[in-house]
Amino acid sequence: MLTKWLWRFATERDSWWRKLIDIKYHNPSSIWQTEKVRSGFSQSVWANITKEYDLFWKFASIDPGNGTMISFWHDVWNQGMVMSSAFPRVAAAAADSEARLSDVASLNGELVSWSFNLKYNLRGGAERERVDLLNFLNNIPMNNFALSPCRMVWNPDPNSKFSVRSLYRNIVLEKLPGMLDFPLKQVWKKMIPSKVCFFMWMVFHNKILTVDNLKRRGWSLANRCCLCCRKEESINHMLVECEFVMEVWSYINRVRPVASFQDREVKLIIKHSPHSKPGNVGEWFRDCILHAIWWFVWLERNQRVFEEKKSNAGGVARRAARNAMEWLVAHGQIDKIQGEAWLHELLLIR
Ligand SMILES: [Zn+2]
After folding, report:
1. How far is CA 347 from CA 5, 45, 320, 342, in A?
2. Which residue among 159, 172, 239, 342 is least crowded, i.e. fewest CB within 10 A of its CB?
3. Cα(181) to centroid of ligand 1, in Å?
4. pTM for the whole structure
5. Does the pLDDT at position 219 exceed 50?
């Protein structure tokens, strides 16, 4: 990851490569980062690396220590903020835009006081901004001020050590919450049609439009499961608890015990479903029967709701088993004759 170089630039003060980069892309405002290189004709490696600065400073910061190496206005030295961006009108009025933190802050006994050395008196909105800035500064912890040297801090790590792994985890967690938990291999299977995999994805994220989900979106509906006509419909009821779906499973398990679930919740069932490299027909079948049964139970439910047509659990079990086998044959996992024989045995018995 390119971001690693930004960390190294900030921390490896004496290395030769850093000195070279610093000569070429020197940032007069900060010793912790180079100038952001604009992409132009010369698309250098470092230009690409500096594109990551915004991301980098989301997770990195500088412990100001005694403040002598911190640009008060331009470095990210507290709470992830750059003062010149957060308080631009005060920054514009500052006599020394390159002032160090130690020039602006001074220790009076136990208190830190602030002096911005402004070129002119501020008025109106700019003055309010100055008061806000003072308020902000008076509320940030400055415990270490003047006590320790400046140092880089990698916020996601308790020991402040940068790692690509922690960066990756934080990017993923920030952009796609729950992504690390998602059972990719159990949901997206090559031999299963993508619309069925997508349905499983929707099930996992509780997004399919069962009556309870429609009600949550403000629809006013009587909530009754149309498969058993007894309980309220929810994804978990329809696919796990409903006696109709249990009957579907029992048709298949009676002949070939392909699945038994310890879990009673769709997310956990998906997570714990097999995703190994299957060998024989039975293993292949086991690998895609969960998708098939849930998909055909869902189609059956929709048929009852929208077309007022009805099949029994045996019919749904046969449809699911046949289709699962056809997916496997179409994808070349097993040959047609072998699949038919296996299916024949499975479906002969009621
Ligand atoms: Zn039901």
Report:
1. 61, 62, 11, 9
2. 159
3. 29
4. 0.52
5. yes
